[in-house]
Amino acid sequence: MSLAIELDNFIRRYVAAYSAAQVALLTEHYDEWQAPIYGAAVTDEWGQWQPIRQTEIFQFKGLAHALEQPLHTDLDIFFGRWFAADLFASYADHPLLLLQNHCTEDGERLQANLAGHVLMKRRLRQPITCFIGLAEESEDLLISVDNQTGQVGLEFVGQPQHEILAPSLAQFLSELEPRVVDLTTTPATQ
C-alpha cells in the first residue's frame, strides 16, 4: 500500500464529496501568502481553494538536521505532495482535521511548530511523534505519527499516544472518510 497513492485517492474522494454535496471548498485566505491553492474570494474571511500538486516537494531534511533527529519519511509525502487547505475527515467515530500546507510559507510555519513539538517530547522523555492533525473531540487532542513505528494514533498535548488508529499512514488514509463542512453556515471548528 503506497502512501502517495492513498493520499492522492483521499484528495480525489475529498473533492468528489464536496462536489456531490454541492458545497464549495473554502478556506481562510492569508493575504501575505501567494498560495497556489487560492481561488475566488467568497467573503472577507473565506475564499475558494483547490488542491494543487507540489512541483518542488516540501521536505523535512533541514528540520531533521537542525533537531539532530531523523523524522519519519511519511511526513515528506504527507506534507510534501499537495498544497491544500486543512481537510475535514472522519476516522471510525473520530471527527478530524488533517493539517496541510497552503504554500511554502505555510510549510515553514508547520516546521517551526513541529520542531517545538519534538523538543517538548524530548523534554518530557516521551517517544517522538509528529502531529498531522487535530481530533475535534478536544482542542488538545492531536493525530500523530510515531516517529519510530509510523503508527498513527491519538495523543493529548504533552502525553504519549494513547490510542493507535492505524499501523501506518497509508492504511489510515485508506480508511479515512471525507467530511463535508459548509463553512458559510458552520463555524470552522465543527
TrEMBL record:
Q: Kindly give the Gene3D superfamilies that the UniProt entry links to this protein.
A: Syd protein
Presence of keyword Transmembrane helix: no
Pfam families per record: Syd
- Organism name: Pseudidiomarina indica
Per the record, GO CC terms? cytoplasmic side of plasma membrane
InterPro entries, per the entry: Syd, Syd_sf
DNA-binding as UniProt keyword: no
Q: What is this protein called?
A: SecY interacting protein Syd
Keywords (A to Z) from UniProt = Cell inner membrane, Cell membrane, Membrane
